Amino acid sequence: MNPPPALDPEIEDLLWRERMLVAETWEEPYEGPTEVDSAPRVTRHRWDAAASRREELLYAWENAAEQIARWQGVQARLLAEAMDLALEDGATRDDAPLSVRDIAAELACAVGLSDRTVEQRMDDALVMRDRFPQTMAALEAGRLSLPHARVIVDAGVRVPAADDRATFEAAVLERAAGLTTGRLRVVAASIAEETVPTSIADRHAEARTARRVAVRDVGDSMSELWALLPSVLAHGIHDRLTRMARSVKDAAHGEGGDAWVDSADGDGDVAVPEGVRTMDQLRADALCDLALTGHPTLASIDRSGGEGIDALQAIVQITVPFQTLVGDEGPAPVLTGRGPIDPESARRLLGAATLWDRVLTDPVSGDVLAVDRRFPTEAQRRHLRARDEHCRFPGCRMPVWRSDIDHTVDHQHGGPTAHTNLAHLCRRHHTLKHHTPWRVEQHAGGVLEWTSPGGRSYIDRPSPGVRFVAPT
Q1: Residue 148 reports pLDDT greater than 90
Q2: What domain range is 268 assigned to?
Q3: Is residue 256 part of a domain?
Q4: Residue 75 pLDDT more than 50?
Q5: If I label 283, which of 103, 107, 165, 342 is the partner at 20 to 30 A Cα–Cα?
Q6: Which region, left, alpha or beta, applies to residue 359 given φ > 0 means left and ψ of -120 to 50 means alpha?
Q7: Residues 191 and 265 placed together within one structural domain of the fold
Q8: Same domain for 124 and 270?
Q9: Is residue 222 part of a domain?
Q10: Are residues 64 and 169 in the same domain?
């Protein structure tokens, strides 16, 4: 068994020097007699001291995250070895499942976990170690967290050939730095799609036959209404319910009626007082009214005639390669912020659209070069929608239609109204940019470089370029 990873001596030395630097430069209150010939005491501004502590905290935070990832890699390898041992033992007595259950039960009891959970983790660890060695190595080196590794494995398990999986791993790991699991999931799905031998159209046609609606009772007079639907329809339904919920919320708020609470990112909820409805609850209410009556019957909307609700339509943004649009074999269309979809659904959406954009991309980098259409109105907005797809703060996935278009360099300070100086920011991060020391600079290709109050730089690249795979 490999020894547990030790803290890198260079990192340990760096952290120690940082702590000593802070300790040596911190000015303690001096109440003793002063000496005429002594050198003047150097005082530090409180902000400087706070900045030093912030930088020290960042170093410690990054180091802790790296060490946790390394130990998670150790755990994954141990679980894979436990699965090897169980399978070897099972082969001798022709009962491998019982051997796996036996070892999983003991491992679980040793650390206070469910044996079913440990058994599933053993299986996952074996798959990662044997089929995704590059991902396993990145996890053990602390370059990748366990949730990120699981996203890569989940996307890559459908790539059958070992050589293709190796190519997939290399491409995803190259792009994984700085991505949240949500963004990485989209990138990994798009790259996997390029390496799967069967087309998404064939796979979707087969998977579509499994669509269904089911009900599961969960107790306390509550039940789950569950549906397996094509991705375009499912996300379209959720978006329309969200827009209806917001319309109800705005109408009720304006009339002093129904109270509501929404979280900062617009999709989740926070703890709320009794009698106050969250966005999740409003979405559920709108779904019930639509399914049972064909129209939302909330009293606040009825009083205003309901026209606002009736006019709402779902928004689904997709990117369709030209070869796929005309019916030839080509890259899979992409549902913005989610992943590949089947070409037939994409063509039907385009056929029903009153206007659609042609997006010209760089054949090597995948960067959006230009956007045009027969009707050249709102050209810059269309370009930015195609390039950004969501809020451009690192890790944020708020869709562009729920975000603001922000001048990177403020217009009042001479910033031009050009796509090279514009980017989508949700309200949360728009406020962060203008009312905190966070700063952002835009580079070629729409790359945003965010600088934190502590001086750290964080790069956010446009999604089309990140998930783009150049043909070999």
Answers
A1: yes
A2: 230-310
A3: yes
A4: yes
A5: 342
A6: beta
A7: no
A8: no
A9: no
A10: yes
> Which token pair is 229?
């639907």
Specify whether 440 is located in the same domain as 296.
no
Q: Is 433 exposed, middle or buried (0-12, 13-18, 19+ CB in 10 A)?
A: middle
Q: Pick from 401, 414, 351, 357: which is nearest to 382 by CA?
A: 357
Residue type, 210: A
Tokens 């054949």 -> residue: 363
Dig out the tokens for 146 from the structure.
């366990």
Looking at the chain, the whole-number percentage of residues with pLDDT higher than 70 is 68
Determine the pLDDT at residue 28. Answer: 44
The stretches of 311-403 forming alpha helices (DSSP H) are 322-325, 343-352, 379-388
Which of 310, 343, 371 terminates a domain? The answer is: 310
Q: What is the pTM of this model?
A: 0.56
Which residue, 399, 197, 372, is CA-closest to 318? Answer: 399
pLDDT tens digits, one per residue of 197-248: 777 777 778 888 888 888 888 877 788 888 888 888 888 888 888 888 887 7
Do 69 and 179 lie in a common domain?
yes
- Say if CB 100 and CB 83 are below 8 A apart: yes
Predicted local distance difference test score (pLDDT) of residue 378: 66
Where does residue 192 rank: exposed (0-12), middle (13-18), buried (19+ CB within 10 A)? buried
